[in-house]
Amino acid sequence: MSKKIHTEAVDHLFEAVLCLENKEECYTFFEDVCTINELLSLSQRFEVARMLRQKKTYLEISEKTGASTATISRVNRSLTYGNDGYEMVFNRIGEKEE
């Protein structure tokens, strides 16, 4: 875990996220907390990670998501060298590599 982001404020944010009970509550909360562009960027990165796990090419991913190759590369680096956060979530939601 990165010590740079491990702050009391981030703890409070994560506690708030953990108390959300369904998708509708997530929409309500995240629409207040994030700008539309921030939320779309987060969801784009998640979609990029999902497609990378499915062995899609950068071109396929870029065409489907609109993500730049820099964004795709950054997400790929997180999948390869990160803290396995994406993997943990994909395993919990039951998404498997194709």
TrEMBL record:
The protein's name: TrpR YerC/YecD
Domain of life where this protein originates: Bacteria
InterPro entries reported in the protein's UniProt record: Trp_repress, Trp_repressor/repl_initiator, TrpR-like_sf, YecD_YerC
Organism annotation: Blautia faecicola
One Gene Ontology term of the molecular function aspect: sequence-specific DNA binding
PANTHER family: LMO1763 PROTEIN, TRPR-LIKE PROTEIN YERC_YECD
Pfam families: Trp_repressor
TM region positions: none
